[in-house]
Amino acid sequence: MYTMPLGKLISSFDMQYHMYADDTQLYTSCTPSNHSDTIEIITDCCSSIKSWMQQHKLKLNDDKTEILTCGTESKLKNTNIHTLEIAGNEITCAQTAKNLGVVLDSSLSMEQQINSTVKTINFELRGLSKMKKYLPQSSLLTVVATLILSRLDYCNSLLVGLPDVRINKLQRVQNRAARLVLGFLSYGTSLISSTSLLKTLHWLPVRARIEFKVAVMCYNTQNSLAPLYLQELLLPHTPCRQLRSSESLTLKVPRTNLKRFGDRSFSKTGPVIWNSLPLSVRLAGSVAVFKKRLKTYLFSKYLPL
Q1: Tens of pLDDT along 150-166?
Q2: Is residue 177 within 8 Å of residue 148, measured between CB atoms?
């Protein structure tokens, strides 16, 4: 409540924002032709924020402020933004920026985030392999779920629509974790398929886990359980004439221009994934029931018998 007026101040500059504890992100969009005007708006907004904070006995951490420009390679070259003056300090635009533990890059390829996740999980797996003999399988499964699966699932909805070459990096470490839990790490057992191990542990593969997360977000938006800014991104499908499918709770799939950005946005991937679900899954009466039916459906899709 103390910082609530800050949101009104940011909005007065036509800037969008998200606040989480003491971590605030400002964002806006522009074209190469008007990027100079956008830079001026950002500079004025940040200066006003610093003044507001000084008046209210708060401090703007200039040394923790990062700037990231995202776009296609051609548009980034045309904008030619290298530095910005933020609250009297010149800050160089970064190639990557960390947002609540997620590494974002200017092309939104998520490659840095995936590499960081794989590196962390491999470190944990090396440690677990040494203490495996001291733990019963049930305890080892709990530890792996806490240290490994939680990292695979953290903000994994941002990975939706990525090519297999990147998702497979995460899939390999999940397969390695499955082999660790079930004790199939020796050379003689390497022929056992990873699919069989995932079925045994009842683990969804990485791409299915991403689809699971997006589908749950869609369910929450349709049942007023998600933030308003997410609900506004998904619109119900309204056919031009009365059809039987009009009662199937489908969402409108918007047209997009760029495959790397538009096709991977929540407003596009959300409806695509939601509309592909069976009606019985979409009609679930609660989040718990929805998750149970959704997991069963995804298992039949990605790990068929």
Answers
A1: 999 999 999 999 999 99
A2: yes
